[in-house]
Write a structure and sequence with these properties.
Elements (H helix, E strand, L loop, with lengths): L8 H16 L4 E4 L6 H11 L4 H12 L8 E4 L1
Parallel strand pairs: 1-2
Helix pairs in contact: 1-3
Length: 78
């Protein structure tokens, strides 16, 4: 169990996963639960209040930060 503080939780998780990958040389895996709400509502909540679906936002941040899918940390959502 890790604990951290950040203005944007998805970015902090993504940055930590990239840090782990760079330090260990292995691609890390992150496990999330998925919300049942509409993704458009989640994006709106994120823009207005800074809250949103952590799994989706972390995945998108990682996709933009690491274009090579074989080097990108893996997000598992259940």
């Amino acid at each position: 169990m890790l604990r951290g503080e950040s203005a944007t939780v998805p970015n902090a998780i993504g940055a930590f996963l990239l840090y782990l990958r760079d330090r260990t040389g292995k691609v890390p895996h992150a496990y999330f639960s998925w919300t049942e709400r509409d993704q458009r509502v989640e994006w709106l909540r994120y823009l207005l209040f800074g809250h949103g679906d952590i799994a989706h936002l972390t995945h998108e941040m990682l996709r933009e930060a690491e274009p090579n899918s074989e080097q990108r940390p893996v997000s598992h959502v259940a």
